[in-house]
Fold each of these.
Amino acid sequence: MKKYIYGIVLFATLLTSCNKLVEGINTDPNNPIDADPNTMLTSIMVGNMNIQEGDLARFAGMWSGYFRGFTQQYQSYHQYSVIARNFDDSWRIIYSGVYKNIKLLKAKALEVNNRRMVGVVQVIEANLLGTTTALWGDIPYAEAADDRYTNPKFDGQAGVYAAIQTLLDSAIVNLNSSAFVSFAAQDIHFAGNMTRWIQTANTLKARYFMHTREYQKAITAAQSGINSQANNFMAPHNATNRGAFNLYFQFLSLDRPNWIDATGMYGVNLLNPTRAGNRSNTKTVERARWSYFYNSASNLNFTLNGFFGQSTFFPLATFAENLLILAEADTRLNGFTAGLSRLNAYRAYMNTGAYINTTYLTTGNFRYDPYVAADFLTGGIENTQLPTLPQDRALLREILEERYITFIGQIEGFNDLRRTFKENDIKVNIPLNFGASFPQRFIYPQVEIDINKSIPSVLPTLFEPTPINK
């Protein structure tokens, strides 16, 4: 019996030793099948940055009059000539990459009761899917990135926005929780600062209430939103390695030099201090901001200190946007006096230099004096262009133009143009790049058309407004 027991122990010992010798032999360290929550958090953040700052932002920018597709396929894109395949890569990143990992990470964080991490991931999810529904309209959401559904349904756009608002409410609760395991080192946006995450959640709530024209709710959310430039939600970049470069810089300088420029575009013409009809007046000097975005009448500024520069952080949600949400929504709901006060609060912020790189903030290059009521009366400095407007509409026209300039390079500029498209008296009236119609959405990608039987049977065209903009 003793020999028998010894034999079993020896066999088990040998088996264990052999297992250790071959352990991991079939594991590729470059293709992990799992990761810890903290590592996943950083990759999710980077994936969302790619969506907000990459291909989709360039399409939106070309169609918003910020820059021009000059050569190769970008010349066709500029003229609104796109096919479903052009959106395949971004769609895959959104759903197969970022959103699927968001779902996995939320489950992992909940297993260890890391409520704050759940809240952070919910904010990223809201930013990701809020952008997706804004650009495409009806999208897969409730059943998306879930292996149980081989043909995830397309949820209505209004319902997606409502779900995102509920998601952000939940995020704010979780961000206020005392239950967490530190992830400050992996939080590339705020290093675990919950105050900044909570403010970001509220500004995103305000943004999406603007999309759905729920202006009172937008005001309420923005009042708890980003309250200083230091708390901006930014995509960080540096010059250490190519993977950390500003994505616009990569495209403009390294990947596709000269494929995009600014020649003849509305945005550069509006700011250009040497061009007749620019937006400067006796109270406004825009030379610094023009130099920050554009280093000539034909080129985007991707030099070291420019908005599109190698190490320039890219805005995802900001104090500037929050102030302008309050300005527009307050004007629409509460009238001229309330709106003027809000706009002047924004101009006071701009007069500090705001988000413009200090390189360009030399004396005399920027000025944003407060406006007074008379400036918006017929013949006033902000009511001279035709048609002249009632005072409150003239103020709204100026606020929308200010939003347009603030969002240069960002998807939100394209969202604004479509939201206000029918307001002919106050909208930013950018010229068409081609033809007689302005793009109203991105078209569904071919990868989704090919494999998802739930896709709408009649595919919307590029020029068909999304449901909330009809």
Amino acid sequence: MLNNKKGNNGLMHYRPEIKVLDATIRDGGLVNNFYFSDEFIKALYRANLKAGIDYMEFGYKADKEQFDVDKFGKWKFCDEQDLRSIVGDNDTDMKISIMADVGRCNYKQDILPRSESVIDMVRVATYIHTMPVALDMIEDIHAKGYETTCNIMAISTAQEEDIDTALEMLGKSNVDAIYIVDSYGSIYPEQMRRLAEKYMAIGEKYHKTIGIHAHNNQQLAFANTIECVAGGVNLLDATMAEMGRGAGNCSLELLVSFLKNPKYKLKPILKFIEDYMLDLKKNGAVWGYDIPYLLTGRLNQHPRTAIKVVEEKDTKYADYYDFLMEQE
């Protein structure tokens, strides 16, 4: 059960309330259109089990009317039979998660009742301006029996008053957890500390767990995650070898190395990276810190143009910086 106890924040101690979610397939799938082999997914599932990871996110529940199934791998859609082909009934302590994007899923039809699914938690991704739809999704999914989270994306671009309003709305809803999401990798630890305080105040008021999902544009994903840990945030996202859209996320190996809870094991993560992640990069998957991501992070801009620049191996960084400044 998700909860929000702060406990002891010292670096030599651990809070048993902390839960780690591996988002490698979901955020990493944005790198390769979710084309992972079944062998890769099964090996990742086994590695996460051995490492003591609490949640494994398999991908999105995307609407097949909106997205061409021939242009994406199966984890863009997370059909029940595909999930069960990997985890069976998931008779383990690790829970299965998926993400549902506001406006990009048919949640009333495609998300089955919990009694018919191996999924444990559905994470609703939204922007501030689509909060009413997000709340409707949360209530529908909660009524079906799932744990729910709300991940408010691009929070660095939102007005503080709007953030406060959205958090109050979520506090009064049936959502289990609320995520701080640094979509553009633009937030510095000092700012993250203040955000964590704001979110934690809502969490304590309404008995919600608070989570953190960080991007690594300025190489601060890990720093921001542990800043949140110190502030009492208990639901932590990370990915194998930091694989994720653009600059990637907080790396799972760094996070597990930091957390002192003996339930978490580093060696299975290292072995999986050695056996599978290195080959992904060798075969052309591109992610991780690069100067174009630094620049979009610094300017608090979406990394879509940086992704293009990196993919094209364009190293005219000064010209790209001028281009971005013109967008300001």
